[in-house]
Amino acid sequence: MTLFTLILLAVVQGLTEFLPVSSSAHLILAPEAAGFEDQGVLIDLMAHVGSLAAVLIYFRRDVMAVITGKFALLQGKVTEGGRLALLIAVATPPVLIFGGILYFAGLAEAMRSPVLLAWMLILFAIPLWAADHFGRKTVTTQTLGYRSAVLIGLAQALALIPGASRSGVTMTAARALGMERADAARFSMLMSIPVIAAFGLVAVIELSRGGELGASLTDGLIIAVLSFFAAYLAIAVLMRFVARIGFLPFVIYRFILGGLILWLMV
Known about the structure:
Elements: H1 3-16, H2 23-34, H3 41-58, H4 60-74, H5 80-91, H6 93-104, H7 107-110, H8 114-123, H9 125-134, H10 146-157, H11 166-176, H12 181-208, H13 217-245, H14 248-265
Helix pairs in contact: 1-2, 1-3, 1-13, 3-12, 3-13, 4-5, 5-10, 6-10, 8-14, 9-11, 9-14, 10-11, 11-12, 12-13
């Protein structure tokens, strides 16, 4: 893969990963728009690894609280960090299970259709707007219940559909359950850590074995580093403005992008 291709994919993925606009959709569309071959699922996953590093660093205090909280749990003590660790733990299994099924069944590549992702961009924008517009703002990460965390985790599994957006569906579920905007975004990003780590590990192993035509582990590592910087910027911007602007601008963007794709495909 050329350096230009890697830079383009890294910037696209990094900027869109934590915005509710579907990074997977943009990664599928990027080669279509730029005129090069689809980079494949594994390179997409490596781009997500860079985003993982951005989350770990931006939310380093939460990450450290979770780590120390796990040790406290082993001692029978439930700290705030330990409770957050448990919330993430109960929210994670659905997406890992269904993601594993899709990948090893070879269905992940089959779902990389521009028409499919266009409709998903539009359809999943509607509940995002409704949840943000009508949802209460009474629940924080500290008061989120385990049942609600499981429901958000089930919603996260829908992100396996290109165009749905992992951050989009999790923020939609969180807002529908009454979480404040900033807390919904924060919990969504913290939920991404074990998911991206698991899928990223699969990508590293497969690329090191030459598991994808035209891509190498070196390509994957380059795109991971580049996407880190773009993702960190996107997180900083979202967390600073989401409480004020809400999710309506992203809903409008999804409608415009989805409609444009369908128009071009006709």
